[in-house]
Amino acid sequence: MRLLLQTGSANAGEWRAAFAAALPEAEVTLWPEVPASVDYLAVWKPPAELFARVPAPKAIFNLGAGVDSLLRLPTLPASVPIVRLEDAGMAAQMIDYVTLAVLAAFREQAAYAQQQRAALWQPRPPLPRREFGVGVLGFGVLGRAVAAALLPFGFPLAGWSRTRRDVAGVDAFAGAGELPAFLARSRVLVCLLPSTPSTRGLLDRARLAALPRGAHLVNVARGDVVVEADLLAALDAGALAGATLDVFGDEPLPPAHPFWHHPRVTVTPHVSAVTLVDESVAQVAAGIRRLEQRLPIGGIVDRTRGY
Ligand SMILES: NC(=O)c1ccc[n+]([C@@H]2O[C@H](COP(=O)([O-])OP(=O)(O)OC[C@H]3O[C@@H](n4cnc5c(N)ncnc54)[C@H](OP(=O)(O)O)[C@@H]3O)[C@@H](O)[C@H]2O)c1
């Protein structure tokens, strides 16, 4: 069985060694070398040319959770199954990142940091925990893991998805009709939606205005789900208290972008949950083995939904 690997990263050799160890029955080739025939592709943000040279693999494994950049490629073969990573060590990282951001907002870290710079000893009244709703927009593999991890803190939790997802201790909202009610109770809004034709630009002026005054946005999904100009306007008008942003419409975030120096914006360079080699290779290798045995696998992308 032949596997063609394209990682677009400097550690391609590490990926190849991990695949060779996890799938000793496979012949692993590193793009841009292409063998005479290819059974499986494992790729991350591949160049369009790759599918011109490998038009009909049995399946394409995406070395990340989001498939937005892959689905945009005009050369992507139409009928080949696409399999994405599910968790593969990313949920634990998202839990760290989002918990840190939610607690920083709840404990008003930004305000205290500002007071410290002014040598100002000024206790603020604690925010009532029961009124500090946390809403997870996109209640999939990562969204549900984040909500479950936040349960012990006692914030009122809610999740929003296309189809209703019941998780103990979390209020479930579904579909466009329930979005306004979900937003209205989200003092912190955590975005974990995939970027698809129906989510791009979703967090615009009107949706941001539906959040409670003083709300905080945490975007760890994709930058294009948020209309950045509308977010800046809401921050500058004081409607939103802050934003923690790991993803942007244009990455790397251009040096002149106002987010970099905005006093109430925290910027990180798309690191909230990175792809981990060993965990990802183990998941892809298990998937390939199951496909070879004609068994069903998880993570198959629905191209019509876009995720
Ligand atoms: N910043 C980073 O480092 C990083 C790392 C990993 C992932 N991500 C991003 O996080 C995203 C989520 O990952 P995941 O593994 O949790 O994906 P997932 O399991 O596919 O979950 C996606 C969730 O979004 C919901 N959704 C999709 N379209 C919707 C719509 N139009 N209206 C309402 N809900 C909608 C889905 O609803 P249903 O439950 O009804 O299907 C599901 O609950 C990825 O797509 C990726 O872009 C970012």
Shape by Cα distribution? elongated
Average of the residue pLDDT scores: 97
Q: What would you report as the Rg, rounded to the nearest angstrom?
A: 21 Å
- The named CATH superfamily of the largest domain: NAD(P)-binding Rossmann-like Domain
Low-confidence stretches: none
Summarize the main sheet: 7 strands, parallel
Individual helix count = 10
Number of domains: 2
**Strands ordered across the widest β-sheet:** 8-7-6-9-10-11-12
Termini separation: 28 Å
Description:
With 307 residues, the protein is an alpha/beta fold. The strands form 2 sheets. A 7-stranded parallel beta sheet has the order 8-7-6-9-10-11-12. Strands 2-1-3-4-5 form a 5-stranded parallel beta sheet, covered by helices on one side. Helix 1 links the parallel strand 1 and strand 2. The longest helix has 17 residues. The radius of gyration is 21 Å and the shape is elongated. It starts with a strand and ends in a 15-residue tail after the last helix. The site of NADP nicotinamide-adenine-dinucleotide phosphate (NAP) has 29 residues, from helix 6. The site of NADP nicotinamide-adenine-dinucleotide phosphate has 29 residues, from helix 6.
